[in-house]
Structure formats: C-alpha cells, structure tokens
C-alpha cells in the first residue's frame, strides 16, 4: 500500500510554488485541467483545483472554514536541520522553531498557502 494525498487548493500555481520552492518537491505530471502530481522521495502529493468540488462534496470547505481542519500532514526527513534551513531560507512566513519533542523526534511546523498544516519531522533512528 502507498499513500497519496490529494489537496484541493484555491490557487494551483501558488500551491505548486510552495511545494516545489519551499519543500523541495518535484513535479511528476501536470494535466491540462491543472491537476498536478508532486513527489519528494516516497512522499506523493497531488494538487487539484478546489473549484472543481461541488458545494455538497464532503471535503468542500465553506465560507469561514479552514481547509484541512483536523488534519496534520507529517513529512519525515532524514536531515531535519537541512530541511529547516531550506524552509527558513525560502522566506516562508510563520514557520515554527525547530524543536525537540518528548517522544524523541525533532520537528518544525508551518501551513501551506491554503492553511493545510504540515509538520516536518526527523526520521526515527
């Protein structure tokens, strides 16, 4: 089994720029509709236009609701220091400090342009 996340976003180009420029993903495929498949190592994330969802779609956010509420996307990296340096060097706003967690991992957190919450974490050794 492999996990693929599909994020429905308001601005495909802005989200693509975030995942490629800030987090180092690469574009695997892009369709004429804008659907974009990205990868970074074994992590696979696809982006799609939120306008394609009907108003009654179960994952459609409504006025005043934050996208991805209740979901934490965890990206596990081999070199957390290098990942933190890349993200902070990008100038992306509101990146948490790199922290040591009681359960033995180091991580930092940020939100993508649509408010999806991401935790970048060191791999367990």
Notes on the protein architecture:
- This protein is of the alpha/beta class and 125 residues long.
- The protein has one domain: 2,3-Dihydroxybiphenyl 1,2-Dioxygenase, domain 1, CATH 3.10.180.10.
- Helix content is 17%, strand content 34%.
- The strands form 2 sheets. It has a 4-stranded mixed sheet, covered by helices on one side.
- The radius of gyration is 15 Å and the shape is globular.
Give a brief outline of the structure.
By secondary structure, the protein is of the alpha/beta class. It has helices at residues 12-22, 80-89; strands spanning 5-9, 26-30, 36-40, 43-49, 72-77, 99-100, 106-111, 117-122.
Structural category: alpha/beta
Low-confidence stretches: none
Mean of the pLDDT scores?
90
- What is the succession of H and E elements? EHEEEEHEEE
CATH architecture verdict:
Roll
CATH class assignment: Alpha Beta
Strand arrangement, major sheet: 1-4-3-2
The 3D shape can be described as: globular
- For this entry, what is the oligomeric state of its chains? single chain
């Amino acid at each position: 089994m492999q996990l693929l996340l599909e994020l429905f976003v308001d601005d495909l180009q802005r989200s693509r720029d975030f995942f490629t420029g800030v987090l180092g993903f690469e574009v695997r495929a892009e369709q004429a509709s804008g659907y974009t498949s990205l990868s970074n190592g074994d992590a696979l994330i696809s982006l799609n236009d939120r306008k394609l969802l009907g108003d009654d779609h179960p994952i459609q956010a409504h006025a005043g609701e934050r996208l991805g509420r209740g979901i934490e996307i965890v990206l596990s990296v081999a070199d957390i220091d290098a990942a933190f340096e890349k993200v902070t060097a990008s100038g992306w706003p509101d990146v948490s400090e790199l922290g040591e967690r009681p359960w033995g991992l180091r991580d930092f957190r940020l939100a993508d342009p649509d408010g999806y919450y991401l935790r970048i974490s060191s791999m367990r050794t």
